[in-house]
Amino acid sequence: MTAPAGPLAELAARGFARVPGTTMASLLGQAGAPEALAAFFASWGRLETDAFMRDGGRYRRRRIANFAAEPGQPGHVRGEHRPHFQAVVHNTLNGGLDRWFAAMEDDVAASPPLVALLDLGRAMAEALHGPQSWFVEAHQFRIEAAAGAPGFPTPEGVHHDGVDFVLITMIARTNLVGGETVIEDDAGNRLAQFVLQDALDTAMVDDPRVMHGVTPVAPADPALPSCRDVLVLTWKRGGAPGRAG
Length: 245
Known about the structure:
The chain is an alpha+beta fold. Helix content is 20%, strand content 31%. The chain has helices at 5-14, 21-28, 34-42, 106-109, 112-129, and strands spanning 16-19, 48-49, 60-69, 77-78, 134-145, 165-174, 176-178, 180-184, 190-195, 202-205, 211-214, 217-219, 226-237. Strand 8 and strand 9 form a beta hairpin.
């Protein structure tokens, strides 16, 4: 897959790009059609509680998978299930710990939408950084909120992920207010603030250049369930590290 010119130019100029869901659906081809997305989106209803929140929160559900990609070889190969690890410098709340999250379901990991998103993200990462041996992680997130109990998509605050490229795709916002994506430089200057509102609305981030975060979420109607579902894909050069990156 070739990196689309518009988002690539925005990434090169600003360190991040915002891509509307309608554009993303077109870029994904048949994998972006409603009938292909339905089962993929439904899998967010089967995520498991994140038990590694040092703030004691139980507002986050997730599953993960990891993949490898090698220069000259198309596609991504799924790796053996492993813990997710972030250095404390990148995650001051939950870093420095091997976190064993539930594995992404096999059918989801091999689904056309995820395969297409991986191919698109790799094209963007390699347009920025050149062909590499990549270690790739895929994170399914659901952030839940209730009356008087907000959810925190990025409880560690605005941060770098410690990778080379990040793709953040909205799956669904259900009865939700808040959840604004924030982009800052290393000096803390606010570069952008926007809401990924519709399905497949996407933020692409050149992680070494800029930081990102998301503001807290709360239910629009306190009497009804409220959640924010997103997919986060990351590419880290150098292949699989000794510890999960």
